[in-house]
Amino acid sequence: MVSKIAALALMAALGMATPGAAGDEKAPAPGSNPIFRDRFTADPAPLVVGDRLFLYVGHDEAQRDEMFNMREWLVYSTTDMKTWTAYPPIMKATDFKWAKKDAWASQAIEKNGKFYFYAAVEHDNTHPGKAIGVAVSDSPTGPFVDARGSALITNEMTPKGPHSWEDIDPTVFTDDDGTTWIAWGNRSCYIAKLKPNMIEIDGPITEITPPHFEEGPWLHKRDGTYYLTYASLDRSTQRDEHVSYATAPAITGPWTPRGLLTGSGKYSFTIHPGIVRFKGEWYIFLHNATLAVGDQSGAIGRRAVTVERLRYNADGAMQPVVQTEAGVSVPAR
Fold first, then answer.
1. CA nearest 268: which of 246, 238, 293, 308?
2. Domains (range + CATH), the chain
3. Using CA atoms, how far apart are residues 202 and 207, in angstroms rounded to an integer?
4. Which residues pair with 77 in a beta bridge?
5. 184/170 Cα distance (integer angstroms)
6. According to the model, what pLDDT value does residue 21 have?
7. Residue 47 bridge partners (DSSP)
8. Which of 78, 218, 255, 289 lies 20 to 30 angstroms, CA to CA, from 187?
9. Spatial distance between the Cα atoms of 287 and 90, rounded to a whole number of angstroms
10. Which string of DSSP letters, residue by residue, matches 30-44?
11. Each residue of 52-66: pLDDT tens digit?
12. What are the C-alpha distances in Å from 61 to residues 58, 233, 248, 304?
């Protein structure tokens, strides 16, 4: 009995269907969507370390009609994009002692032999509004600890914004010359250089807002072209967020809008891209709200992370992505 319970627990941790669950439905194929099925996850941020891909996510815990309830960040890893290992939570929002709540979108990056974790939280009343903190660890699986003892970015540093949650959704990117940049925002998109110590802004904060930018920016580079992918919302024609992107010849721009990359996540108002090259293939991670866990169905605050292959045309344009249930469970075409 003990071994059976352990096996069921392992299957749940890996997001696999357990025997007898959901009316003895067939277990989902490894690599199909959503990736994790035992809990609600959102805002995926991939990081490749050696031959392993780590995926950082927020843990959606909204109950009933709650909008968002996110208290901690989780990390998973894989070597084949189909079998995933779960780890203990890497950090809680309140591990930043100056933060009140809200473990919102994050991204981790490796530099100088350490792992730096940038995340959006709700600051306490000394700096009201959303803020971005940075934590550090010797391991990609944590534990992470506050690297500064104070926020890296606070609401008053971007005074243009019309609301208090402008400073969210950090994305970090290290260029070929070793310089690391951070971009972030809601309704307005900002970028700044980080000092070599990774815990201070180096120079001015610049606005680079592309058309219909809503939130969730992601920076990456391919063949000398810089890509800014983001959650977009054309409020005149769209009800839910889509994913759009822009490209530039330099990290500082100018940024040229390239249009839509994918549609909305099924049943979800939000969407959040994370892009990475792993073992010779490109992938885009997203989220939707198709998962049900127990008696809780998907909702705005109960999302599920997904993955699709990402392809490029000869001119560097990213091919439109169709979000599927099959995900990467089927061979690449």
1. 238
2. 36-310 (2.115.10.20)
3. 15
4. 54, 85
5. 4
6. 41
7. 54
8. 289
9. 20
10. TT-SSS--SSEEEEE
11. 999 999 999 999 999
12. 9, 25, 38, 12
Query: Measured between alpha carbons, how far is 96 from 118 in angstroms, rounded to an integer?
Result: 11
Residue 209 predicted with pLDDT over 50: yes
Mean pLDDT of 72-83: 98
Provide the pLDDT confidence category of residue 161 given band limits of 50, 70 and 90: confident
Strands (E) across 50-113 are located at 52-60, 70-78, 84-86, 91-92, 99-101, 106-111
pLDDT confidence of residue 31: 97
* Per-residue tokens: 102: 């809200």
Q: How confident is the model at residue 37 (pLDDT cuts 50, 70, 90)?
A: very high
Exposure string (b/e) for 170-188, b if CB count within 10 Å is 16 or more?
A: bbbbbeeeeebbbbbbbeb
Beta-carbon contacts of residue 291 (< 8 Å; ≥ 6 apart): 34, 37, 40, 298, 302, 303, 304
User: Is 238 exposed, middle or buried, given 0-12, 13-18 or 19+ CB atoms closer than 10 A?
Assistant: middle
What is the spatial distance between Cα 189 and Cα 192, in angstroms, rounded to a whole number?
Answer: 11
Q: How many residues does the chain have?
A: 333
34 preceded by cis ω (within 30°)?
yes
Q: Kindly report, residue by residue over 292-333, the tens digit of the pLDDT.
A: 999 999 999 999 999 999 999 999 999 999 999 999 999 987
Measured in whole angstroms, the distance separating CA 201 from the mean position of its chain's CA atoms is 22
User: Residue 262: its pLDDT value, please?
Assistant: 98
Query: Is 287:271 a contact under the CB 8 Å cutoff?
Result: yes
| Average per-residue pLDDT for the chain | 93
- CA angle 327–329–330, rounded 5-degree value: 100
pTM of the model: 0.92
